[in-house]
Amino acid sequence: MATIVVPYHHDDRLPDGLIPAPGGEPPTVVGPELPAGDRWARMAVLHEAVAATVAGSPLPVTVLSGDCLVGLAVLTGAQRAGLDPALIWFDAHGDVHTLETTSSGYLGGLSLRLAMGAHPELLAERSGMRPVPEERVVLVGARDLDPPEAAYLATSRVRRSAVAGLSAADLPEGPLIVHVDVDVVDSGELPGLLFPAPGGPAGPEVAAAVARIRATGRVAVLDIACTWQPAGEPRERAELIAALVGAGEPG
Q: pLDDT tens, 140-160?
């Protein structure tokens, strides 16, 4: 499976080496020159480059980036390739805030909600991304929810699952994008996360769940968000990425 690396957190270029690419053939690195000015306009340029790269790649493909918002560009690219994918979203957090509900202002906390159609003027209208219906979204491993997120999820048609309990029967029909924010892993096992959340699964448990999904043969893109600080143990991080990318691959 080919690999695309997007070395950005939102519109900020990340230090070299922060995203450990798996072994094999060298990855395609997406790093366009971003314009000055508004963050959303800058991210629109980045996301256009990512979407074009995904759409032009033989699927399935792995995308490694520094944040969850890149998942929207991945979705756009898969749609441009002719697919109508569902989203399997592994994350310790809900990522279902809106601009009105976020108290921190952290843009990554809007990622999944934007993919489902919120605030289309920010990114979707610029890229042509089509929103994914709530019933075609599965949120896996979310345990650190703000009250507005919990209220939204309680009345939405988004499916919820624990990592260990996820099975093929829980998946929507059709092609799939599997998004894995590495902070779904327990913060005690993976130090240095930007937004650590205790009480989560171990890395091998997450990799096993990803392998169960990939065994269906319907995964078009494995999208991994490396949401960790520069300081950390490179070996542990590289091992986690290798386990996720290798999960479900024929050996």
A: 999 999 999 999 999 999 999
The amino acid that residue 244 corresponds to is L
* d(C-alpha 152, C-alpha 208), whole Å: 29
**CB atoms inside a 10 Å sphere around CB 25:** 10
Give the span between the Cα atoms of 162 and 245, in whole angstroms: 20
| CB-CB contact of 220 with 83 (8 Å) | yes
Separation CA 183–CA 205 (nearest Å): 13
Strands 12-13 and 8-9: antiparallel
What tens digit of pLDDT does each residue of 77-107 get? 999 999 999 999 999 999 999 999 999 999 9
Per-position DSSP letters for 57-103, written without gaps between them: SPSSEEEEESSSTHHHHHHHHHHHTT---EEEEE-SB-----TTT-S
C-alpha dihedral sign at 54, 57, 63, 65: negative
**Gap between the Cα atoms of 202 and 81, Å rounded:** 34
Residue 248: the pLDDT is 62
E-state strands within the chain: 2-6, 8-9, 12-13, 28-29, 61-65, 86-90, 137-140, 159-161, 176-181, 219-225
Residue with tokens 């999960």: 247
Cα(53)–Cα(132) distance, rounded to whole angstroms? 21
Q: Please name which of 177, 179, 182 lies closest in space to residue 239, comparing C-alpha atoms.
A: 182
